[in-house]
Amino acid sequence: MMTPPEFLPALIRKTGNIVLATHVSPDGDALGSLLGFADILESMGKRVFRYVEQEVTPFYRFLPGSDRLRTGMEELDSFVRLAGDDVLGVSLDCGDRQRLGQNGPNLLRVRPFVVIDHHKGNNGFGDFSWIDSQRSSTGEMIFDLATALGQTVSKEAAICLYAAIVTDTGSFKYELTRPHTFDVARQLVELGVRPEFVAGHLYDNFTFGRLQLMQKVLSTLEIEDDGRIAIIRVTRKMLDQTGCTLVDTENLINLPRSVAVVQVAVFLKETGEDIVSVSLRAKDTCDVAEVAREFGGGGHRKAAGFRQSLTTMDEVRNRLLPVLKRKLSC
Amino acid sequence: MMTPPEFLPALIRKTGNIVLATHVSPDGDALGSLLGFADILESMGKRVFRYVEQEVTPFYRFLPGSDRLRTGMEELDSFVRLAGDDVLGVSLDCGDRQRLGQNGPNLLRVRPFVVIDHHKGNNGFGDFSWIDSQRSSTGEMIFDLATALGQTVSKEAAICLYAAIVTDTGSFKYELTRPHTFDVARQLVELGVRPEFVAGHLYDNFTFGRLQLMQKVLSTLEIEDDGRIAIIRVTRKMLDQTGCTLVDTENLINLPRSVAVVQVAVFLKETGEDIVSVSLRAKDTCDVAEVAREFGGGGHRKAAGFRQSLTTMDEVRNRLLPVLKRKLSC
Question: In this structure, how many other beta carbons lie within 10 angstroms of the beta carbon of residue A295?
């Protein structure tokens, strides 16, 4: 096992009430690490508040404990009031304080506040942090934290942590899939996780709408720079026509990314009135986190993104393309 | 590790010349287990003949040793002649003797002949066999055989065996992904395999044409029987327009199959002038092998198919649909 910093098990052991939070638009690693950790903490006799900014989509309801996620700030306030001084705030899988969402400032008022994360470029916020950008996922880190705490992981928590690892490794395909990642996966499966159950929920749980959305998004495919750049788009209209939300666009960027010659895949999303969100996925030759930072965003070398207001998809595309071409020609 | 039967390491140790073969149209497990095993045997000082019926597609050229695959029966004959009595034939990942292909009878003349496989329903052929239908892949079994032989697995062999496991588990998603599977994967990664390298070759090796084909095929989506049946089609024209062949349609049936409510996915393919091939994929509620047999085809419970001549896709669809609806209403 890979050991968390010493302060962390000690701090957890001595605290009775723990508030867990994660980033906005939480994915499988965000929710899986949060719910898995919550289960582990409750098995230690602690009171836990599972905070998310918005109701999670039915897609993630297979995660045990997802029905206990809470969105209310008032509920949080009364939890914290009741806890008095015996409280700890923890953010999981959240790369910076902004990504905690609109209630971030309130969450950070829970003190001490600890950050557990694996995002590169996370400089730490709150009072203490455990950040390891060499880890596949926050879920993997939480498993090691449970080991450091001497806690047995229940089957329910194991499902959550396994889903976290699967999400952030693309089912054991990405770079940070290390021997230790497989070792944790083995232990989680020994605890009762059925890989086909989790994969079925994460990958074989399409709706017809999502399939239709995939078709519409693929029809926007644009090939640039001799195929080294592939661009796809989703509009509000496509979402309306197919009864989908932005959540259903997740993973679609992997389609252009999977073309052998493509070095950078770009996904332009009309996320609101005059708001365009951009996801970037790269292979070895380009650091898209740098590109995203030029546009006020962030992320990892191979997976990054940013958001622009008061603009159109065409405008964003036209400003982004030269930057990407420049990067690729270096 | 999970131990192979005792006769096997003994037989291998005492033999100097080994002929390896696998099934026709070899996939990642067939080629990966064959090439990985060949490397292990050569590191033991043995002469190895790597037989496949046809040249493998460029898709699998990333497997170390794939350039040493041989298709010639004459070459095989002279290898066997030179070996005299000191020879062993081994078939890997091949469910029955027919699947060895047209040269199967010649291969089986190499005696003794051993069958190593994980396919359910393999009753064993040749002189000896090691068949374990609870294994994820033949590649996983070969790793355990190397351990039983006390052989270190080279990085090259590790890549082959890892690709074998990834192929047959759908990247650790299928039912037979067990703790031991993850344990073997961990060891292979420790031996130098980079998961993203193998996954990149197996999954991120699309062409733009294939992506365009996917879009066109998805645009034909037809939903029947309240969503329990989903039908997609590919025409000769779509293949021509996208520069694709029927090989590129592989796996596309998994798209409608991945819709949660779908019980049977149907893929109608215009395979020639007036010839329609039909692939069927089912979940738990329907035995599509029975349906395929009614149309002169065959297959497994969850994956079957048939072919019809002198007809159109519409005609086949109209005859098939009532049969499927009847099955699903039982």
Answer: 18
What is the average pLDDT value for chain B, to the nearest integer? 94
Structural domain boundaries enclosing A86: 7-203
Same domain, A14 and A146: yes
- Reported ipTM: the value is 0.87
Terminal C-alpha separation, chain A: 39
Please state, in angstroms and rounded to a whole number, the distance separating the CA atoms of residues B218 and B279.
Answer: 15
User: Tokens representing A11?
Assistant: 């701090």
> CB distance A259–B171 less than 8 Å?
no
Whether residue B121 lies inside any domain: the answer is yes
Give the CATH number for residue A261: 3.10.310.30
> Each residue of A43-72: pLDDT tens digit?
999 999 999 999 998 889 999 999 999 998
Show the tokens assigned to B206: 């699309």
**pLDDT value at residue A1:** 56
Of B175, B189, B227, which has the smallest distance from its Cβ to A179's Cβ? Answer: B189
What percent of chain B has a predicted confidence (pLDDT) above 90? 81
Peptide bond into B4 cis (omega under 30): no
- Counting the structural domains of chain B, the total is 2
Task: Give domain status of residue B39, yes or no.
Answer: yes
Residue B1 lies in a domain: no
Region of residue A84 (left: phi > 0; alpha: psi -120 to 50; beta: else): left
Residues B165 and B30 in one domain: yes
Q: Distance between CA atoms of B141 and B163, rounded to whole angstroms?
A: 13
Which chain B residues are closer than 8 Å to A283 by Cβ? 200, 204
Asked if the structure places residue B61 within a domain, the reply is yes
Element (H, E) at B96: none
Q: How close does chain A come to B283, measured CA to CA in Å?
A: 11
* Rounded distance between C-alpha atoms, residue A35 and residue B137, angstroms: 33
Alpha helices, H only, chain B: 7-14, 28-43, 73-83, 104-107, 138-148, 155-169, 179-190, 195-203, 208-218, 236-242, 254-257, 288-294, 313-329
Total Cβ atoms within 10 A of residue A236: 13
Residue B172 to residue A178, Cβ atoms within 8 A = no
Does residue A234 share a domain with residue A129?
Answer: no
Nearest to B33 by CA among B166, B219, B182, B161: B161
pTM for this prediction: 0.88
